[in-house]
Amino acid sequence: MARGRKFLAAGVHDTAMILSRNPYPPPNRFKAIASIAPAEVLTRPYPIQHSNNPKSSKKPKNLFRPTKIVYPEDRLRTEFYMDHPWELARPRMLLELDGQDARWRRWGRGLMQPGMKLSGENVVQRQLWLMQVKKMSKRAAYDKARKEFYDLRQTEEIENRIAIEEARMVGAYFGKTDLQVGMEMEAQTYNAWKKWASGQIAAIDSERNAAYANLLDDTEESEEVGVVP
């Protein structure tokens, strides 16, 4: 055995066979180890490099560590949500029907896709399609997808406002909005803090007044002791 090398993984199958000869039942992984045994060589081919520059001739490092998977949408998604942080506060549906929802997407037709609610992901996929298919620059594709997103979001807000007005005309009643609830919670927290702060100030003033009164008493006693009749 070479010095500094560890071959423990290569002997897993042999150890499992020895254990199987004992009266104890074989481990559950015995069949998997027998069919897919660990490699007994120390060489390892270069793993597939997931990067934006597949033509790079730079040799990979850390061959025995998993490579970092990078998708072209990652940077586009980061830039969009940096410009539109409030879009992250909108609820999203993460449930898929069969795990192949992406095959029904046709980003050449626009941002709106069947079964997919309008979100920042629509902008990212639309921008990526414009860059890869239409060969547009990153900035031009972003501006085009962003403009389409603004138009659809504005239309969505107008439709919601009209629906609320029509519902109120026939007697519907809506509770407090999220903004109103948040403002009330903020006011309650502020009043509680104001009450606590007033108590703290009163306690500090009381301690200061008591300390000042004790100082006056000590001064008067010192003067009385020093007076000669």
Short description:
By secondary structure, this protein is mainly alpha-helical.
**Mean pLDDT reading:** 81
Strand content range? under 5%
Overall strand count: 0
Order of helices and strands: HHHHHH
Radius of gyration: 35 Å
Model description:
Pfam families: MRP-S25. GO terms for molecular function: structural constituent of ribosome. It contains six helices and no strands. With about 230 residues, the protein is mostly helical. Helix 3 crosses helix 4 and helix 4 (about 120-130) packs antiparallel against helix 5. Among the domains are: about 70-90 and about 105-170, no CATH class; about 180-225. The chain is extended, with a radius of gyration of 35 Å. The protein starts with 11 loop residues before the first helix and ends with a helix.
